[in-house]
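Q: My collaborator sent me two sequences in one message, no labels, and asked for predicted structures for both. Can we handle them in order? The first one she listed is below.
A: Yes, handling them in the order given. First sequence, followed by its structure tokens:
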Amino acid sequence: MPTDPRYDYALREPRLPRPVNRSLENADIDLDVRLGMYRKLHELRQFGKRAHDLFLQNLVKGTTHLSLGMEAIATGFGAAMKTGDYTFATYRGHAHSLARGMDLGAAMAELLGRENGVLGGKGGSMHLTDVSKGMMGSYAIIGAHLCVANGAAWSAQMRGTDQVAVAFFGDGTTNIGAFHEALNLAKIWRLPVVFVCENNLYMEYTPIDVVTAVANPAADRARAYGLEAILIDGNDPDDVYLAAQKALSRARSGGGPSLIEALTYRSGGHSRADPGKYRPEGEVQAWAARDPIPMYHDRLLSLGTPEARLSSIERQVADAINAATEFAKSGREPGEGSLLTDVFADGGSRWRN
């Protein structure tokens, strides 16, 4: 039987990243904001790597979905959002949780299923949530959280606040009914919500373009709902930050929703059970060369930031990750007494009786 690139994905022509936009070096972004984003990039990367190491040690409960290589999206939006804004993420939500200020130790402990985790060890890797930080949940049901984000945005609209809901999702979600329903309602009601498609080119193991009629699964569908087609470099924190600022400002001022497609690439497989061997080698190498961290390191150097300052940030983050790991390991596993708590709004099981 002849090989067919529609089914043997490793034979497909690689989809290459955009070249670095050098003009962004002159973007009107405060240096302190940029240094904060550099710190966050390293925090998210080192957290993801440590989570992988702990998984291999059989310490992480269940599977885990990492966003290694995709950190610039969470970083850029995290820097642009206000304290009261809402974040809704997928099961690949570690980066978005930390970008909103979730405690490193509590997040790591949650992955390990310990009592000192942010959810007491009950949520695990796929359900990181911290309402106190505006992190309104990581959702395992594909596309479900887009409609929930609309509800949060409607609440803000009805209460007259300037809060904005931001929903992050993968490229595969664009072929789910909830994606289209959420966009349609958000536009009709002019909701203060921003939808962000993290297009890493693969919906689990299948290239998104194999099953989608348009080249850009989110941006090319925006006009069907009266929205602007926005396609950005999801590996460039500055590009993400500027796009986030514009979309958030539009939502706060009553201008309604935005749909942003951020092109990016996960450096590993879909989950820890996936070696990712279905991807063309040339594609993997090309995207590795566009890793957001060394690119942003070079940009900061070109802007006059001393190497010593950047190295200091990296060391500080490494120390924080080590401390978070020790904190996580120090926690106990939840006991039987917690089985029937946090199962309904009143924290108990009486609703069933």
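Q: And the one she listed second?
A: Here it is, processed independently of the first:
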Amino acid sequence: MKKAVRLTALAGAAALALAACGEAPTESTGGETASDFKPCIVSDAGGFDDKSFNQLSFEGATAAADQLGTELVDVQSTSESDYKGNIESLVGEGCNAIVTVGFALSAATIESATANPDIDYILVDDAADADFDGEADAENIKPLLYDTAQAAFLAGYLAAGYSEAGKVGTFGGMDFPTVTIFMDGFKQGVDYYNETNDENVELVGWDGKKGSFTGGFAADPAAKQTAENILGQGVDVILPVGGPIYQSAMDAIADSGEDVALIGVDADFYETDPTTQDLVLTSILKKMDVSTEEAVLASGNDEFDPAPYVGTLENGGVDLAPLHNFEEDVDPALWEEVQTLKQQIIDGEVEVKSYLAE
């Protein structure tokens, strides 16, 4: 069912990788008027207040609209059945650029982009390559991709060094590449810690091929049960990958009565959700706000480049958040090792494998 479209005031807030990777668009040097350019955005089922994936993209698009002197049209999805109708509602609104947030919207984005070649489409977190030929399936789609395995590698190393139990855990919403890329990087980081420190920290919830998934991306009983199953195996650090499911992990931690640290994904949970501040060790950052803002600005300035953008540690598209309240609990030597490791990944001295690393 098509959702109602609303205007947001300015003051308001994958498959295989593509063969070629474009740079993020440059900053705006001018601006269109509201009558000249209409940017729009449609959310995944989590909504724009998920304190994570959708919210970051929304904030980026809003910032771009502000700079361009126009208004952002936004529409929220509550289920998969909303995607196609929501995108078409934005076409009907006369949008010049449409941001679709999440790999789940890929098929509907490709269909709409093919039918509307004069509209710029910005697809967050998917290559828009349903036929797996290494190119986006419509020439007017710009994929925004993020090699989060690199930042997750750092988080895995940190978690392994921080853990007193010698066990850390992870679980995801669904077994999709954009989810498992976090889990893959996390596992590689734990393995690298063990290799370089002659330790044997165990990772629960993901073995590189199969693991624990909730079956969706809602903070529901299934997510809490999955978290409880991981916690029951004695972990003292947990990485939930999938938007709001971290909230269920927090509930499970509270019920357990154990001292367990949480690792966030996408946004810095310490900043976006103050209720996590006593639990969040760090967050694996996916700078969707920055790349979305730049892509919308480029479209508004007639500089739209459909070449895919891939965020990395080197270009700042992914990163690891500060320790915040855990700064005194983490050995300074361990944190220094993490910073050194970050530079080694950037310099190519340490390899992080992922489907976006080719």
